[in-house]
Specification:
313 residues; mainly alpha; 53% helix; binds nicotinic acid adenine dinucleotide; binds adenosine-5'-triphosphate; binds magnesium ion; nucleotide-binding; NAD/GMP_synthase; NAD; metal ion binding; NH(3)-dep_NAD(+)_synth
Length: 313
Amino acid sequence: MRRMQQEIITKLQVRPVIDPHDEIKRRVRFLKDYLQSTGHKRLILGISGGQDSTLAGKLAQLAAEELRKETADADYRFITVRLPYGTQRDEDDAQLALAFIQPDQVYTLNIRPMTDAFVPEFEQATAVPISDYDKGNVKARMRMTAQYLLGAFEQALVIGTDHAAEAVTGFFTKFGDGASDVTPLTGLTKRQGALLLQTLHAPARLYTKTPTADLLDQRPGQADETELGIAYDVLDDYLEGRPVSDETAESIEKRYRQTRHKRELPAGYPSGIFSFPQIVSVLVMSSYAPFTKSCLICRLQAHNRVKACAHSG
Ligand SMILES: Nc1ncnc2c1ncn2[C@@H]1O[C@H](COP(=O)(O)OP(=O)(O)OC[C@H]2O[C@@H]([n+]3cccc(C(=O)O)c3)[C@H](O)[C@@H]2O)[C@@H](O)[C@H]1O
Ligand SMILES: Nc1ncnc2c1ncn2[C@@H]1O[C@H](COP(=O)(O)OP(=O)(O)OP(=O)(O)O)[C@@H](O)[C@H]1O
Ligand SMILES: [Mg+2]
């Protein structure tokens, strides 16, 4: 396997082989433990009718139900929110997902008025019409705002649906669907997510349908794979440590490097500048931590003291 491939697999916490029953249990337990450790009793998530929110939603509902049973505290709840932009083309799938999840609560909030409000304001400010692509990212950020608003109202933590196949390509809107409090799908490939839904007896439609960000007015329901220019199966092969062509691997790795800023906290001063005490503390810590590298720059990078190293881009 390529060295960079192994590094990405490790960094994104992908397990090439999973036991779906065990994976479901561990991820539900993670949500329960996280709620209990923070003192929160509620989780919230936007349900689109796609695979990722269906899976994350089901895991969250199971976590809430188990916590209610184990603690006899009825305050543990999972709250969903439908966030259509106007009328959603695949509303039936969203309803199917809700029927499968059986969430404790469903809100609906139309993001169209607030998204559209930006259109004339943007043009007024710039004298140029907003592009369909940029408007798509506004939709994702409006959904984030709605989830955080309802989350604050309900004292709920916001669930994110990021997983390894999205993380490796940075295929999410920064501070849009990329913003959340807790991500129960971390490390899963797209096909592993489908396997978990199958194991949970979800309707097949919800894990066989074509994944779409569905953010563009001009290309409704455009397949992620069309925009990405790469199939999820190929991304999954790469992430599960299977052989892919050098050309494919290089294009994935290039994208991974280019989108690094989306997987990290914002670059903050003095990022890239390190003081003598910082270097000493990194060296001391690194003698205890199980680093995969003997390279000093990699170690500093792992502690966010430098932005990149030639080894990992
Ligand atoms: N090197 C750097 N260091 C720090 N920040 C950097 C940066 N380069 C750009 N940036 C910042 O990042 C911004 C670009 O990132 P971002 O705003 O996310 O924009 P961008 O990556 O261009 O767009 C998001 C992509 O994710 C896709 N998406 C979105 C939502 C959901 C899904 C889905 O799978 O369902 C997919 C969407 O279709 C699109 O292709 C720049 O405008 C700039 O502010
Ligand atoms: N119309 C919508 N209503 C509510 N939430 C949405 C909507 N569209 C997107 N979201 C939220 O944004 C997240 C990111 O969208 P994304 O398309 O990656 O996931 P998905 O739709 O659940 O699955 P898939 O990738 O298979 O389409 C969703 O998981 C969901 O939480
Ligand atoms: Mg989708």
